[in-house]
Amino acid sequence: MTKEAGKRSRVNRGPLAEIDLSALQHNLKIVRKISEERPVIAVVKADAYGHGSVEIARNLARLGVSHFAVAYTGEAKVLRESGITADIIVLFDRSDVEDYFTYGLVPVVQDKETARKFSVEAVKRSKSIRVHLKVDTGMGRLGFRPEQTVSAALEIAGWEGIKLEGLMSHFSEADLADRSYASHQLNLFNEIRFAISGGLGRPIISHIANSAAVLSLKDAMMDAVRPGLLLYGISPFREGFGLMPLMTLKTSVLAVRDLCAGTPVSYGRTFITKCDSRIAVIPVGYADGYSRLYSNNSEMLVRGRRVPVAGRVCMDVTMLDVTSIGGVCEGEEVVILGKQGNEQITAAELAARIGTIPYEILTSLGGRARREYVNGH
Ligand SMILES: *Cc1c(COP(=O)(O)O)cnc(C)c1O
């Protein structure tokens, strides 16, 4: 556990995230089936999308996953220190070349200068390092330009200490119904990988399929798939594909107040009770990742029923209008995300309410929550 997380759990604030490890196993099975048992590079960046990278990686490793991907070396270090021995691919970090050797990590190389640094460090240590090259096929973020990739790859592959093992790229819009841009990226990637493997005289492990591509672009699966979102049980499409969300966010009622008709609630008096009302105060606010944009614009579950957020979300608390339920008491369970009884609030629903995507819901709420790992909800 990091210091920060330790501090947070002592303060005991914010929601409790229940993370269902049986759902993780279920989702991995689905990924393996769809990808016809290709190796899975499990993306566990950003603390496994707010689910806790150590526990998630440990469990995936137990289920036979042998490759992980993180964004920065610091995240990989945490995994190594908790005993994860599988391959860890670091997607973005170019800062500390030494860490890659210290922790035995696989860098994604995006330019020749960095590749040179890896070669120099490898020679210094009389070691070699496996690297994956990234080509920018249209994401416009990081990677070699397509027209420079083949020659750069062949050159770098010849440098001392470098074992050019993989080639990767990333889709910009594989989740859109219009497949034309994704197809363009895929064609470009294929051209480049065949030219490289031709030049090397051996295959190069090629991977480009994020969650959306796993579900919708069969030709993109290649030598390995690289999903994040799917493992956490969320589909980037409307269709659910039988995935099971891992995360349930719960809290309990901090206090209830009976207010007369016409009473304003919270900052700015944006909510005024229409009738005599019972308002429940919930110990979760925007400091816990529950966006202020949910003010008068979201619901939570109490006794398996939906209740609206009343007034502005505050830093540490939020108010719910529980009048319709009747008799709600202090201490009762409140579900912010997930199922309660027959009702469910999904990450997609929360995301749609505030104009974002489920990824941001998981990282902002789950990333700050206290966590408990369970098997089945
Ligand atoms: C985050 C990320 C992924 C995983 O994306 P999902 O949509 O969660 O499957 C794959 N590859 C790269 C390079 C990423 O940054």
From TrEMBL:
Per UniProt, what is one Pfam family of this protein? Ala_racemase_C
Q: Which GO terms describe its biological process?
A: D-alanine biosynthetic process
Q: Cofactors per UniProt?
A: pyridoxal 5'-phosphate
What is annotated as the active site?
A: K45 (proton acceptor), Y267 (proton acceptor)
Domain Alanine racemase C-terminal per the UniProt entry, residue ranges: 246-374
CDD domains found in the cross-reference section: PLPDE_III_AR
Kindly report, in one word, the top-level EC class recorded for this enzyme.
isomerase
The UniProt entry, under PROSITE patterns, shows: ALANINE_RACEMASE
What are the annotated GO cellular component locations?
Answer: cytosol
Where, in this chain's numbering, is substrate bound?
Answer: R141, M315
Name its pathway.
Amino-acid biosynthesis; D-alanine biosynthesis; D-alanine from L-alanine: step 1/1
Q: Which SMART domains match?
A: Ala_racemase_C
Q: What domain of life?
A: Bacteria
Supply the alphabetized keyword list. Answer: Isomerase, Pyridoxal phosphate
Which molecular function term from Gene Ontology is one that the record holds? alanine racemase activity
The record's section on SUPFAM superfamilies has: Alanine racemase C-terminal domain-like (SSF50621), PLP-binding barrel (SSF51419)
The EC number(s) given in the record are 5.1.1.1
Where are residues bearing N6-(pyridoxal phosphate)lysine located in the sequence? K45
| Reaction(s) this enzyme catalyzes, per UniProt | L-alanine = D-alanine
The record, for InterPro entries, names: Ala_racemase, Ala_racemase/Decarboxylase_C, Ala_racemase_C, Ala_racemase_N, Ala_racemase_pyridoxalP-BS, PLP-binding_barrel
The record's comment on protein family reads: Belongs to the alanine racemase family.
The function of this protein is: Catalyzes the interconversion of L-alanine and D-alanine. May also act on other amino acids.
What's the protein here called?
Alanine racemase
Organism of provenance:
Candidatus Sulfobium mesophilum
Lineage from the top down?
Answer: Bacteria, Pseudomonadati, Nitrospirota, Nitrospiria, Nitrospirales
